[in-house]
Amino acid sequence: MPSITTRAHVYVHGRVQGVCFRASTRDTARNFDVKGWIKNCSDGSVEAVFEGKRDAVEKMVTWCRKGPDGAFVKHIDVCWEEYSGEFDEFSVVY
After folding, report:
1. Domain tally for the chain?
2. Is 30 assigned a catalytic role?
């Protein structure tokens, strides 16, 4: 039976820059074998795309609701999209 894959496009709002949010997200995504990217936005939020097995991507979205120590997440916006398979790894975009 094939694995069910999905994609989530996420914006995380709150105190999420300057608290190792991107690096912690990258490490967590790699642990869950989730591919995609994360970057800082000019408005102080972070934007990420997660692709992989549905349960792993759902875990990443849940993880983003809290983030690493030092972060304060006010809210997240999640858009579920069709899996593309375009990523080889999870990376931080600068």
Report:
1. 1
2. no
Q: What are the pLDDT digits (tens) for 33-56?
A: 999 999 999 999 999 999 999 999
Q: Which secondary structure element, helix H or strand E, spans residue 27, and what is its range?
A: helix 21-31
Options 7, 30, 40, 65, the catalytic residue: 40
**Model pLDDT for residues 55-78, shown as the tens digit of each residue:** 999 999 999 999 999 999 999 999
65 catalytically annotated = no
CATH of the domain at 61: 3.30.70.100
Q: Which of 15, 22, 54, 65 is catalytic?
A: 22
Global confidence as pTM: 0.95
- Parent domain of 12: 5-93
Instruction: Give the separation between CA 11 and CA 2, rounded to whole angstroms.
Output: 29
